[in-house]
């Protein structure tokens, strides 16, 4: 037996696994409630909840119900939310995105009034607010990069003016972080961080989100501005540019199929890295759990821990509220 490998039997790795307390003591990565951000969808009206058919347990909520859900999550232990708004009307220039009294702006004010300590992040994009469903201004069927930057900056500024604690541009237009940083700084919001969707891929995992945010493109797709799933070096270039422009946190989206990108960004840049555990990933887990094919609690906690192991500091996930409850049960 001594010849099995050098060091055996002196080195027995199972010694550190024999006892549950010791396993906790030597655990390399830990998942905590502070790691999680809870995405929420807000719609106009009152006392209305629209369940998302492809995302069991997730609904579009009017502001009154959104506040209740956010407070419930906060009391459970979720300290941060990210808000996605669906306006009453859409147009070609995404007017509702930067309207001071728009759906996101009103939701932010209501959340900060009801629960001041809740950390409120806002998605900064135009796709939910345009009648064509693209993330920028369109002319003659082409998504225009530079003209879109002003609209994105105006949107981010309006969110900060409403009381948002952080803005998160998800559009993937070149130069948008610099435009947003400039607008915030020039208007007295130099303290507001930017969490940039730096490596956002043109992914098939977004399907259920398009239903939830009512943001599916009316024509074409988003491959001209979201990244090709084949590329990883490009993710480094995108992230480096966002950091140069003033991003405080960088993000990888989606999560499960892109953990190599999470690790590369963390190892290369050392900044806080967020990962978005997206709608399609959530839907697959929920569907398998409903069929009884998997143990939902164990799968979810293992999945979220795997993001931490890959290098993520923050995890945006629809599982957030359940996951925090389950963590407390294990404590």
Description of the structure:
Pfam families: ALAD. Mg(2+) binds at residue 238. Keywords: Heme biosynthesis, Lyase, Magnesium, Metal-binding, Porphyrin biosynthesis, Zinc. By secondary structure, this protein is an alpha/beta fold. It has a domain at 29-248: TIM Barrel (Alpha-Beta Barrel), CATH 3.20.20.70. It has 12 helices and 12 strands. The protein has helices at 20-25, 63-76, 95-98, 103-114, 146-162, 176-186, 207-213, 233-245, 259-269, 279-291, 296-310, 320-330; strands spanning 36-43, 49-51, 59-62, 80-85, 119-124, 137-139, 142-144, 166-169, 195-200, 249-253, 273-277, 314-317. The strands form 2 sheets. Strands 1, 2, 3, 4, 5, 8, 9, 10, 11 and 12 form a 10-stranded mixed sheet that branches. Strand 2 and strand 3 form a beta hairpin. Helix 2 (63-76) crosses helix 4 (103-114), helix 4 (103-114) runs parallel beside helix 5 (146-162) and helix 5 (146-162) crosses helix 6. It is globular.
Helical content band: 40-55%
- Uncertain segments of ≥5 residues (pLDDT<50)? none
Strand content: 15-25%
Structural class: alpha/beta
Main β-sheet description: 10 strands, mixed
Calculate the terminal CA-CA distance, rounded to whole Å: 39 Å
Number of helices: 12
What's the CATH architecture name of the domain at 29-248? Alpha-Beta Barrel
CATH superfamily of the domain at 29-248: Aldolase class I
Subunit structure: Homooctamer.
Protein name: Delta-aminolevulinic acid dehydratase
GO cellular component, one term: cytosol
GO molecular function: porphobilinogen synthase activity; zinc ion binding
